[in-house]
Structure formats: C-alpha cells, structure tokens
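Reviewer comment 2.1 asked that we show a complete input and output for one of the modelled complexes. We chose the flavin mononucleotide case, as it is the one discussed in the main text.
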Amino acid sequence: MDGQMSETDDESQTSTQAVLDYHQATKHSYQRYAAGPGYLDWESQPNPFRRYEGARLISLEKTPPTDEPLYDDAFVENQLTPAPLNLPSISQLFYDSLAISAWKSIENSSWALRVNPSSGNLHPTEGYLICGPVEGLTATPMVCHYAPREHGLEVRAEFELELWQQLCDGLPPDTFFVALTSIHWREAWKYGQRAYRYCQHDAGHAIGAISIAAAGLGWQARMLDDLGREELALLTGTSDGHELEQGRIEPEKRAEAEEPDVLIAVAPSGQEMEVTELPGEFIRTFASLDWRGTPNQLSDSHVDWGMDQIAAAVRKPRTSRSCGPPADPAGTWPLDPRPLALREMIRQRRSAVAMDGKTSMSREAFYRILQRTLVVPGSIPFSTLPWKPHVHLAIFVHRVDELPSGLYFLVRDGSQKIALETAFPRTDWRRPPGCPEWLELYCLAEADLRGAAQQISCTQEIASAGCFSLGMIAEYQEPLQRHGPWLYPRLFWEAGVIGQVLYLEAEAAGLSATGIGCYFDDAMHELLGLEDRSYQDLYHFTIGGPIEDNRLTTLPAYGPVTTPSRRRR
Ligand SMILES: Cc1cc2nc3c(=O)[nH]c(=O)nc-3n(C[C@H](O)[C@H](O)[C@H](O)COP(=O)(O)O)c2cc1C
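Response of the prediction step:
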C-alpha cells in the first residue's frame, strides 16, 4: 500500500514538474518567442468545423434576439424564471453560447465568428449535449455533438432511459449535461508549443458563455469536477483510438484527437444541486454504446508541437472533490440593472482589432466592470466553477476619468491579500478614490504605463490605446503542488471565464474588449516585482473605444451566404 502510494505520488510529482517545465518553456520574452511554426502553412490550415460524418443531424431553432431577459439579471442566480426544457430552450442555450454570430468577408475570403471568442479565431473547443428525453428534441436519451455551422446536434449515441436515470440519480429533475472537448491541433497549427495554453483560455471562455446563456434561461450550470479525464472521454465518445478500434478508418486518415475537458450539469435554478459525483459504474457502460459518425480530418498534414505530452501530464484522475470550496463571499453589492437586452450583448460581442487611443471611461463604469469579476454568493458565471478564486487582476489604468493613470491591483480573494503583499513587495497598497468599500482594489503606482503595457503585450497597441489593460495573475506553484498537475488547465479556465465577463461588460459599457494571449510573461512579473513562482501571469486583456475595420463586410450568421473560404491574412 505504502509502495503504491509513493509510486502515485512520484508520478504526480513528475507530472507536476512536466507542467512547470512546459509553462517555463512556453513563455514569450523580449529575447525569444515560444517555439512555433514561424510562418503559416496555409495548405494545412485546420477546418474550423468538426463533423461526425454519418451521424444523424437534428436542426436546432435559430431565434432572433429578444428584449428579455435583461442583461444584468443573468449575472445573479435565481433572478429569472426557469424556461421549460424543450427544443426551443436547448436551441437557445447553444445559440447564445457556441453558435456562429456573424460571417466576415473581404475580397475572396470569408470566415465565421462565434458567440464565444477564440485565440486566432481558430476555435479548438467542441461542445456536446448529453440528455434524457427532451420535449420536441428526443424521446430517447442521447449524446450529441454540437455542429455550430449548421446550428444542429449530431446524434453520436442513444441509450436506455434506465441508464440515464442511474446516471442522474440525485440530480434535480430536468438536469442535462454540456461537455466540452478541445482539438489542440487547431491552435498548434498557428501557435506551436504555447497553443495548449490558448486552448484552455478558449475552454474557459466557453464555460463562461454556457453559464451565462443558461442563466438567461433561468438555469444553473455547475461543473462536475470530480470526474476523471477517462470518464469524460467515455461520456463524450472521444476515448483514444475509439474509431480505430472499430476499424472504421485507416490510421493515416485518422481525425485529430479531441481532448475531453469538462462536464457541466445544467438544471432549473432554485433547486439545490448537491450531487457532484456521477456513478463510475454507469459511466463505464458508455464504452459499449453504439457510437455513430466518423470524425472528419481537419488537416492533411500535422506538426507535433508536444500537445499530447502536456495533455497527458495534466490528465485528471477521479477525485472525491475538486480544488476546494468557493471563496468566502466578499458580500453582495447593489448594482442597478440597466435597460440592456442580454442576447443582444451576447451576440454583438466582438474583439476590437484596434483601440482609438482617446476614449475614456468614468470611474464608476470602471469599478462596475471590476465588481462583475468578483465571486460572491450566486454570482454568475463564477458559481459554475467549484473552486475558490486563484486569479487576480494587475491593471494598467490609462484613461479612466478622475483616476490617476498607473498600476492597480484587484484582489479577487481577500484571504490571499497577505500572500500577495509578500509576493509583490510594494510598500504602498493604497485604496483609490471613490472605490466601493468591498472592492479590494489598490493603487500600487501612479505613472503613465501605456508604453510598458504595450511592450509587455508583445508590443500590441491595443494594450496601450484602450481605457485600461490588465494581466491575470494566478496563484500558481503551491496550489499546483497541493492539488496536482490537473489544476494547471483550470487556472486558465478561470482566466477565460473572467475574460468572458470582461468582454460582455465592455459591450454593456458601450466599449469593446480583446483577449490578449501574446504577452511577455517574465517581463510582467519583473514589473510587478515578483521574484518567485508563487504567482504567474496567465492572460492579458484590454478594454477601450474600438476602431472598426471598415474594409470587412458583415454577413448574417445563418443567412443565405455561408460558403466558407480559407482565410488568408
Ligand atoms: C485566449 C485568447 C487570446 C487572444 N489573443 C489575442 C491577441 O494576442 N491579440 C489580438 O489582437 N487578439 C487576440 N484575441 C482575440 C481573437 O483574435 C478573437 O477572439 C478572434 O479573432 C475571434 O473574434 P471575436 O472575438 O470577435 O469573435 C484573443 C482571443 C482569445 C480568446
């Protein structure tokens, strides 16, 4: 027993070291970028749409945006009456989270944009629905792959009602599951070794998008994080070599692997979702289901950027609990609801390609955006994540009225304040003027940091020409060692969820945002005075007044013109 224990511990330590090494190796710095292709091989550009050829496609409904619900009501649990579970509501959930939101075109090129953002618009994240009988959709429990281009569900497997009931035992009536997987190759094609990080950011954005879309329907979304990676693979039919074993396709024509990431239980709000574990013996039954459809190959040729190695190092075993309970609530706050329609905000969200360098925002609007990133009881989308906050915000304020330009720090979990002060040895953590008492925001330095912000974000002007930009600073080495290497992607998911909130809050404030995956990691750490690896910078973000790219034509998401052509720019 002891021997076994230490072997497992050894394995975990080796994997944790592999994760720490991967993170170091994939840092961009002034001296060198992380290993990547250096140029884009357009011949092997991955198809952004996975299809399971041969699987039956169920069309979902496409709904025009509605005035209700109000945007602000979707961020607080139990504000909205639960919608009935049926074809229209399932259609709406995917339409508001993972669907196409518009097509863009220029000259002979066109490409789809989606409700969820993605690094390089490469969209590694795939969505799945696992459900029991749903009125108007199915009488038989099933596992479906979501096809965004068609806004439809591909039926990959059907199974007995008894198995569904066994799986959901203890969960509220009308529970169903949404699962996410990542096709790492899509990002690795362009970004090489650092791509694994971007896939995790994107998964985080998708988790946030699903949580907010569910809230708009009066539903709650909870990540079931005790599941292990192999169980997720069984539930989604993405186990390694599944198709090969069944002799359906030749090895060289094999489709790019999908790495299962997460399972989210969705149920009507107002009912306690106590069960966080699904019974393993029933999950194993999924291995013998009649899985239908052959995944399409996305590129003819591939380059190995080490995605399988890092994915293997972070594979999660089944655990009896995730990484700890949500943080002690900081307290609720009064936020006046604005007359903004949720679905309009969701579908108009767009990354700014350039910021105008002049728009400023009010101090109140700035504080309001930050408040939305806090974890308080029932705050959506953070109630979907079953762990306490690990991520804080180091903010470069450029153009906020009545607030000096400079470096600010938002502590998202007050219990980490002392650890943060120790890690960032600044003498002066001052409260800025007019800051609400329960917003733990501090001014660390007053200065014009536009140049520094731009330099650190790989010299991208969007980081200096907005109202503010920021780095997401995550508690790192100690929790990784405590929980195990599987925490690593979760730190990025949390950053992605925060990013999704920032994107929507920017729209609600009449501004625009852009996620920034390209930044010089250690340059940011140096600027903050961080000398060890207790914290690491995991994602950058900018918010400001956008400059529209008028060369592009916008076409409707599901209008008549949706013939894709390879994007070359
Ligand atoms: C994780 C992540 C990293 C990104 N990094 C950058 C970046 O470094 N620079 C940039 O201009 N845009 C960046 N973007 C924005 C994407 O290019 C954008 O989301 C994508 O083109 C899709 O457009 P949309 O957000 O308007 O749907 C990033 C987005 C995400 C989600």
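The radius of gyration is 23 Å. We note this here for comparison with the apo prediction described in Section 3.2.
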